[in-house]
Structures are given as structure tokens and as C-alpha cells.
Amino acid sequence: MKDFVIIGHKALTTGDFSLNDLPGSAGRMDILCRCINSALFLSHGMRRDINVHLVLLGEPDPGKIIRFNGEELRYLNPDERSSGSLIKKALEKDATDFETRSTPGVWIRRGGLEKLIKEFSENKRKMYYLREDGEDVRAVTDLEDDAVFVLGDHMGVTEEEEDIINNDNSETLSIGPLSLHSDHCITIILNELDRFEQPKKD
Description:
Layout: E1 2-8, H1 22-25, H2 29-40, E2 41-42, E3 45-46, E4 50-56, E5 64-69, H3 80-91, E6 100-103, E7 106-110, H4 113-122, E8 127-136, E9 148-151, H5 159-165, E10 170-174, H6 182-197
Parallel strand pairs: 1-4, 1-9, 8-9, 8-10
Antiparallel strand pairs: 2-3, 4-5, 5-7, 6-7
């Protein structure tokens, strides 16, 4: 499985928001919804080898993680309102330290970035933090097919969060010299992985 971690600094942490106003009523939840769709959808299908972890840090109850698992996911359509609806249903559940399933393929629990990174590190998972000044992704010859990619939202990533991300299992990776939207970064990364995994023709 490939894992994408998206930090939502303002994303609302209760289900009390309008699906008709995801940017305003839900703390830019629209960004996270676009990331879900970019990570999971193909033109005529879905990527089943993907986990998307949304780290929700907004008010009124910060510190929740929602996980979308492509292998088991159901009821998701390729639009922001659909993914927003699944997030909303997850947030209506009581979040504990252990995952609770809200709908098929969607789980919620308490926790933040530090908890996730620690779990990935303990499992020896290779982590890539996406930033403009990192190593060019096209220069990487050993991009692992079960890697973890960490991205910020419209607010980027704080210095404190960078300190959490940077460890023995992590590298800083660049997909280009310009700052791009998080969902666009995911699309590019997956395209690079698709090309990297495709058998080369003689």
C-alpha cells in the first residue's frame, strides 16, 4: 500500500458543516476532498493500493485522523461533495485512540501527525516529505512502492511539523521548482510511480 498524509490545519473536527460550503464552513475541507479524489480515482476505476490519512487540526476538537482505504472503499464518487459527505459521517462518530469504521473503507480515530509518523517509523516505512527544495523525484532510482508521502494544505507545513517528519526513514522530495496545490502534487507523484513501476520496453 502507498500512503498519503495530508495535514489539514483548519479542517473542522466535527460533522457540523455544510456540504454546500466546504471551503468556508469546514475550514478548507475542499482541499482535503480534492486530495482524496486525486489519490484514489482513475479515469474508469479506483486505485485500490492507496491509503489517504487526513490529519484534522481545526476547531473545535483538534487531533483527529480519518483514513480512506482504497481496497475497501465504497460510496465514493469523484466529486468534492461525495468525499465531504464521507468525512462528515466519520466526524459524527466518537473518535477514540483506536480506529472506528464509519462507512466501508473509512475510519476515524484520535491522533495527530506525530502519532502517524511514529507508527510509520516503527514499521520501517520510507517517508517522503514534499517540498520545492527537496531531491528531484526524477533523480530517485529507488522510489519504494509502499512509500508514505506527507503534504501540507494551503498553509504549508510548520517548522514544528517538519521536525516531526524528518527522521532516519524520511527524505525531502521535490516534484518541481514551483509550489503546487496538494491534490496536483499527489497526481504527479502517482504518475511518477506509475511510470517507475511500468516494465521498461527493450
